[in-house]
Amino acid sequence: ISCVFQTKGTSSFGKRHNKTHTLCRRCGSKAYHLQKSTCGKCGYPAKRKRKYNWSVKAKRRSTTGTGRMRHMKVVFRRFRNGFREGTVPKPRRAAVAASSSS
After folding, report:
1. Does residue 34 fall inside a structural domain?
2. Does any domain span residue 75?
3. What does this protein do (predicted)?
4. What is the pLDDT of residue 94?
5. Angle at CA of residue 73, ends 25 and 85, nearest 5°
6. What is the pLDDT of residue 53?
7. How many other C-beta atoms lie within 10 A of the C-beta of residue 21?
């Protein structure tokens, strides 16, 4: 029995010490390919963010509502009140009574 091994597995993996991917400037994940100079997660440097419908969970991780929503939570509140502007609230009776007594 001849023991001729095709060492394509474990012993070959030990020789790998160069990094193909580094941190992405846009999304922060370790998916920016140095030779291709593109991010595998967000598609940087492309202008549009990389997203596909075949991965619903991946879209859920980085969509509206996963961050602070500094602007959108104000818009939701304004929507509930019909986007009113330049109005003055009606004087409340307790506030009127307190101001007149003092």
Report:
1. yes
2. no
3. Component of the large ribosomal subunit. The ribosome is a large ribonucleoprotein complex responsible for the synthesis of proteins in the cell.
4. 79
5. 125
6. 98
7. 15
